[in-house]
Amino acid sequence: MRILGIRVDNVDMETSLARIGSLIDDYQNKKTNHTAQVITLNAEGVYIAAADDEFAAIIEQADLVTPDGRGVLWAANKLGQPLKERVTGIDLLEQSAALAAQKGWTVYLLGSVDGVALESAEQLKKRYPELQIVGTHHGYFRGHDQDVIADINVKRPDLLFVALGMPMQEKWLARFRQHLHVAVAIGVGGSFDVVAGHIKRAPIFWQKMGLEWLWRLLKEPQRIGRAMVLPRFVIKILKNK
Asked: Phi, psi at residue 147, to the nearest 5°?
């Protein structure tokens, strides 16, 4: 379906994981040499893409676009095309890691400040002891893209999780994925900070109420500028409806 003209796939977690598995199988069996791009798209991302043709085109060409957040589900309902469920970046990271541990897929974590990707890897290994994490790298490598790409390609992970923030992570992947020897690359925003334990995720009650954004804002008041996108998004949806 489309929200403000931007593509969002009507998938749930099970379908998303099955799609990722299929993409990895195709790559491993040499049915394709194309690095698949998965985008976890929240309301802020939809709002940005509606005014950013480059980002909108990247979303259009992605191999999977999951509905990340209650805002996207709310908008879909308002527009008369309900989505199955939200599939957030943090949940997709966790579930993909669990599945990777079972399937023997290898993983690389790229993003956040120095040390956080490594801490995230350690936490994931504690949760899923069979998980093979072949490499990590921080997200502050501007001007050294080729060095990072070379390290990723030496490790040849099946899954590359990129936490550079939206839309930077999506644009970076779109620019360089033809040079990557990776089966599937997934943008996961600030997920590493949560996995590493630097940021506490909202309690389940807040998540179910669709107030995870408010919990994050209360914990990080500096996010107020980003949070102001949400009322603008709501206004746009109501006008479109």
From this structure: -65, -40
